[in-house]
Structure prediction request, 64 residues.
Amino acid sequence: MPGKIIEFLVEENQFVKEGEPLLILEAMKMQNEITSSIEGKINKINFHANDNVMKDDILIEVEK
Prediction:
């Protein structure tokens, strides 16, 4: 869903586990914690805090 990125909880080159929180996304006046669906290394963060994002945008690229 379209929304606004409030805060990233990870940095590039950081290793994350499945289920670990990645960012806070505000959509429809509610803040949602977006978690990792896989374990791996954060390769690239494609947006910044306060950026507006759309439904199919790739926010973070994770390498297994």
User: Anything to note?
Assistant: The two ends are 25 Å apart (CA to CA).
